[in-house]
Amino acid sequence: MGEVLSVVSDALRRRFRDAERIAVLTGAGMSAESGVPTFRGGGGTGIWEWKGRPVTELSSAELLAEDPALVWEWFEYRRGLMKAVKPNAGHFALAGWEKGRDVTIATQNIDGLHAAAGSRRVLEMHGNLWRGACARCGLRKDLPVTPLPEVPPHCDCGAPLRPDVVLFGEMLPPGVYDAALGAAVACDLFFVIGTSAVVYPAAYLPVEARSAGAFVVEVNPEETEITGRVDVTILGKAGEILPNLAHS
Ligand code: BV8
Ligand code: ZN
Q: Are residues 145 and 69 in the same domain?
């Protein structure tokens, strides 16, 4: 069981200062302070269901095949919630870590906020809410405007587009998980931030990092499934803890 702290220790600051390669796994909690609802958020703020259906059903390959219009309605609802959100201090802190060190962020989030904050090496493991994908010709099309003029939107080739998001029961984009795993097993310091660590295969990453010798740090206001398997958990919000790490 790792130690559980409520502040950043000097020992951790020293580790951070000396780290050359950092890998990060982020989840919905990373964007909570930007106003993006989490799924299983503490205090019931999660959007774990909508119209009486759980996210695991709404964001499933099965429902997309059965009722694409409902899945688009669900994603248009999410796009509506997220259209005005901006990166928070936590996103900007992670972008700042890239100065002078090799940082890879593997995110489960589909909101695009890491890139918006300036992070350059971001692996979007579950896709991106602001893009559509064409099953016929493979085109990835930016869909920045919500509400969409037509639902479903159509590809340049005429076929209907699907959200460019990895649904439950679907494979992650080829090569993305391998790149995330490669960064996890090569890093000195691994952060797991704002995730309940129940969705796989993303939740394997901190475990793989630790068995490859990385020091693993969790940042979350609550203890999670992974708390017992990391080196230290800092109980706090990403937007407050992360900027604090770089302060010498
Ligand atoms: C797949 C896009 C192969 C859609 C999402 C073992 C191996 C492989 C697969 C499985 C497995 N076991 C089960 C599976 C199946 C499934 C799965 O994991 N199910 C779970 C529910 C048990 N996995 C899959 O289907 C994956 N596919 O493995 O392919 C395959 C193929 C066929 C059959 C089998 C296997 C695909 C998974 C991707 C699904 N798509 N998102 C959408 O967004 O609608 S997952 C979805 O959950 C989001 O991406 C989200 O990010 C993710 C995880 O949730 P979290 O990010 O952790 O968010 P959560 O709300 O849960 O937690 C927030 C945390 O933040 C909390 O702890 C909270 O305390 C904290 N917090 C709050 N405020 C703050 C904060 N932290 C910091 N600061 C704050 N301010
Ligand atoms: Zn097409």
A: yes
**What confidence tens digit (pLDDT) does each residue in 148-168 have?**
999 999 999 999 999 999 999
Same domain, 186 and 197: yes
User: Which residue range is the domain that position 63 belongs to?
Assistant: 37-84+132-165
Q: Are 133 and 140 spatial neighbours (Cβ–Cβ below 8 Å)?
A: yes
Tell me the whole-structure pTM to 2 decimals.
0.95
> Distance, CA 158 to ligand 1 centroid (Å)?
32
Query: Pick from 57, 122, 56: which is nearest to 87 by CA?
Result: 122
Q: What is the mean pLDDT of residues 209-234?
A: 97
Residues 6 or more apart from 145 whose CB is under 8 A from it? none
3-class secondary structure, 137: coil
> Whose alpha carbon is nearest atom 47 of ligand 1?
199
Are residue 77 and residue 192 in the same domain, yes or no? no
For residue 108, the CA-to-ligand 1 centroid distance in Å is 7
Into how many domains does the chain fold? 2
Mean pLDDT, residues 37-48: 72
Centroid of ligand 1 to alpha carbon of 216 (angstroms): 19
pLDDT in tens, 75-111: 999 999 999 999 999 999 999 999 989 999 999 999 9
Query: What's the CATH code of the domain at 209?
Result: 3.40.50.1220
Which of 114, 126, 154, 247 is the catalytic position?
126
Asked if 51 and 117 sit in the same domain, the reply is: no
Residues of the chain above pLDDT 90, percent: 89
| Cα 169 versus chain centre, distance | 18
User: Atom 69 (ligand 1): residue with closest C-alpha?
Assistant: 222
